[in-house]
Amino acid sequence: MRIVTVLSLSQWPDNEAMISPQLARALRVAGLRWRPTSGDMFLIDRPGFEGDVFALSNMTIEAHEFATGTVLGFNGTTEWALDSVALDDALWLPAEHQLRALLGATFVALRRTEDGYEAETVLAGESAVFEALDPADAYAGALLVLIGASSGELDSDFDSDLDSDLDG
What we know:
This protein is an alpha+beta fold and about 170 residues long. The chain is built from 4 helices and 12 strands; from the N terminus they run E-E-E-H-E-E-E-E-E-E-H-E-E-E-H-H.
């Protein structure tokens, strides 16, 4: 059984945990694609928007599909003048339930530990446990490995590379 410790935790203002931008970027780079739906959390991944987290809502921010790609339209109720942003400039911060659903049949269990949580998965008969302070981070770590395994790009140094990327 392989055990991976997933580092980093960000908190939504109401203490609802969400994954860090670093972990969200790692998921995007690994190949996770976002199909925006109402309630999704995201940030604008460009200078000047650090620390601003947005929620997709049919009233204020909507996803508009065009032949050239998806654009997130701001419907005039925000405090500043931003009409729209390309989906490529938005970084999805998937919620715990979304990450768990993406694990699909590989997900076995989520357990509380003294130091946080561990998510257990089984892939190709091999069990793996992903430890983190928060369930969403544990799920995200498991999903990174699942995406890597499905793309055939998972190498033996993946775990140490993941820890290094998230540390700094």
